[in-house]
Amino acid sequence: MPLLIATAYCPPARYMAALVNSGSVAVELHETYPKQTCRNHCAIYGPNGLHTLTIPVIKPNGNRTITRDIRVSDHQPWQRIHWRSVCSAYSNSPFFLYYQDELAPFYEKKVDFLVDFNTGMLEKIFRVLQLDITIAESSTYKKNPAGAPGLRDDLTAKHEDGTWAYPHYTQVFEPRHGFLPGLSILDILFNLGPETVDYLKRVQAGRQVSE
Questions:
Q1: I want to staple 118 with a disulfide (CB 3.0 to 4.6 A). Which of 7, 48, 137, 156 is the partner?
Q2: Which whole-number Å values give the CA distances from 95 to 14, 71, 100, 153, in the listed order?
Q3: Beta strands, E only, the chain
Q4: Are 4 and 30 in contact (CB under 8 A)?
Q5: How far apart are CA 102 and CA 100, in angstroms?
Q6: pTM, whole model, 2 decimals?
């Protein structure tokens, strides 16, 4: 059965580590959309330290809006702002020039729905990392889906549960602010490049040992 996951914007390390050994995943579309999660937030390492990027969203049905119907607001040039922040954070990283052309188009083309943007970005990241993982969509909402392991909430929660351990790797602004663990996959990708998958497997293995 596919691993049931929440949609996420340039997911954090724990999210990617949980997926790295999966053959297939299913994105939850029918949950009531929650606030303050990685569904529309991601954390990068900028010149001033931790920097959160937030996709502005519109809930057509208020607090009862399901994830499938969450729209991306175009009232501000968030794509240009986000890409400028990514460039500021990682232009001096070892692999930024190698991957920037793969990711830049996501910050240039207008997008209507959050889940479409996130899924497209995740598919691109899988291809860049040469991960053979298929992405499907959930058909209905099930609180406790039988036979389908679910990681809808713990991987996208604002605060972690403390069971994840992150091995050190060199970050661009580490000399200023120290090592910041658990950031967006962008931080790992631009700093580690082809070693990203091995790093994610170490994160996953470290969690399994701690459990």
A1: 7
A2: 21, 32, 8, 31
A3: 3-5, 24-27, 41-46, 49-54, 57-58, 71-72, 134-137, 150-151
A4: no
A5: 5
A6: 0.93
Tokens of 81: 């702002």
d(CA 142, CA 204): 26
Residue from 23, 24, 17, 22 nearest 208 by CA: 17
Q: What is the pLDDT of residues 99-111, one digit of tens each?
A: 999 999 999 999 9
CA-based max dimension of the chain? 47
Buried b (16+ CB within 10 A) or exposed e, 85-105: bbeebbeebebbeebeeebee
Distance (Å, whole) CA 18 – CA 30 = 21
Distance CA 200, CA 211 (A): 17
Distance of CA 131 to the CA centre of its chain: 15
Nearest to 30 by CA among 106, 138, 126: 138
pLDDT in tens, 29-59: 999 999 889 999 999 999 999 999 999 999 9
Cβ contacts of 156 within 8 Å, gap of 6 or more: 6, 8, 11, 15, 37, 38, 39
What are 19's two structure tokens?
A: 């997926």
Residue 72, SS3? strand
